[in-house]
Amino acid sequence: MLSVARAWLRQEPRLLAVEHRRFYHAYLWVYLMVLGLYVAWLPVFMVLKAPRLAFASGIMVLVGLLGVLLHRQHHMLMALVLVLGSLTLMTWLASYCFGNAAGYEYYFFIVMAGIHLAPLSGKVRVISTLSLFVAAVLSLMVASQHVSDGFIPVWIMQSFNLFAVFMLMVTFLWRMLALTEHFERQYRQDASRDELTGLFNRRQTLRQAEKWWQDAVPCSVLMMDVDHFKQINDLRGHAAGDEALRQIGRLLNATLRQGDRAGRIGGEEFLVLLPRSGRGEAISVAGRIRSLLASSPPQFAGSTVPVTVSIGVAVSHECESLDDLLQLADRRLYHAKHQGRDRVVAGGERQQEREGESCSLLAAPETARQGDQGEPPAEHGHFADRTLVG
Ligand SMILES: Nc1nc2c(ncn2[C@@H]2O[C@H](COP(=O)(O)OP(=O)(O)OP(=O)(O)O)[C@@H](O)[C@H]2O)c(=O)[nH]1
């Protein structure tokens, strides 16, 4: 029962705008605390022989409940007016009945915080603050100087109210701060991640490459593109294509070392950054990715989706700038595609350029055999070493 209520409260209303999420979660807590306060006040006012205030508390419990319901149903402004209005009224009545030394006037600060932490316009804030100030001054004017209830000394009442106000204020500020941090972290993560694969997105991957380049960290890059991906989409559906990309992302994460970075920089294009790795290491990582894809191809709806990739490898010491490095890896990827796909190219393009498009001298024997760029890869599941190094 309790867990159902908790789940119901925690679940955000649908279509809640991003900027209102913090408001929703923080105020829900505060409304629940105010509701708890009304419930606690009910017997206290009975003991203090203030049946009218106890009755008012009973009404406020219902008003508080309505406020929580409205807030949960996305009528957050209405809930705000209702809860803060009811708290102002109760504060006013209690101050009037028990005098201005019993500590009820402190609750005006909670209302003030409630007004100023809510996403209200400047005009509304100013008007609400002035109205609240007038209400507070009036309550002090009409309240008696000192009222003793006969049962509880005034200082105890004051201490209780001070404690309640402290708790409300601390909860309010703590929740606001915790939620702000939580959402900021989430937004930062959303902004740096690719939603489909969970890998870094293009911007974050390039930013990392830029950082390593500026710090003069020697680095190898793998520019990787899925072969004939359009055919996967066309033959098996977009969902199968998405799932294949997701599983490639998982495979990359599982293959790479702790400090390496893998990002999805285009539809079916990935960039892998290998800091402090030379060409040999980069080629072996690329080979590992190919062999893993061959031995454990993506699965979708109970069937295998055979996938191969072409990879261009470049090493930082080959280039003068990061742009050059990425372009070199891209050119090598292009050559890998051109030579029949499903292979790694880590050099040789200059010689190839000199020799025009005939690259038979540089290509591995399988390359020369396959040669046909338009055909989908024929030997899924069989990993052949197709690495071209200049
Ligand atoms: N399912 C899915 N498809 C995507 C996504 N992003 C891009 N694509 C598709 O990927 C396909 C890429 O096609 P092409 O650029 O022709 O490349 P290809 O078919 O892989 O051929 P080659 O790269 O030459 O081997 C297009 O059909 C895009 O619609 C995505 O996030 N999900």
TrEMBL record:
The keyword Transmembrane helix applies. The chain crosses the membrane at residues 26-47, 53-70, 77-95, 101-119, 126-143, 155-178. Pfam families: GGDEF. Signal peptide: none annotated. Residues 217-349 form the GGDEF domain. Residues 340-390 are annotated as: Disordered. Residues 340-357, 377-390 have a biased composition (Basic and acidic residues). The keyword DNA damage does not apply. Its EC number is 2.7.7.65. It catalyses: 2 GTP = 3',3'-c-di-GMP + 2 diphosphate. Coiled coil: none annotated. One of its GO terms (molecular function) is diguanylate cyclase activity. It is an enzyme of class 2 (transferase). NCBIfam families: GGDEF. This is diguanylate cyclase.
